[in-house]
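Researcher: Please predict.
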Amino acid sequence: MDVSLVVSFIAAFGLGSLLTAVIQFWLARRARIDERNFEERKLAYIGLLEAYHQAAVEGTDTAAKNFAY
């Protein structure tokens, strides 16, 4: 075998593994960001529902203001 052919095979496999590592890192980062966004939205909706429930049950001005803000 020619030395340049062996070197090109080694470079091709090394580049492929590097590309795989970069793509896996990017996908894992994207998954973490999506999970964090989901948790933040979930907490916001839970807070809104709790404030709405408190405003409906208590009927006070303070509870209504908590729901409005």
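Model: The helical segments are 3-58, 61-68.
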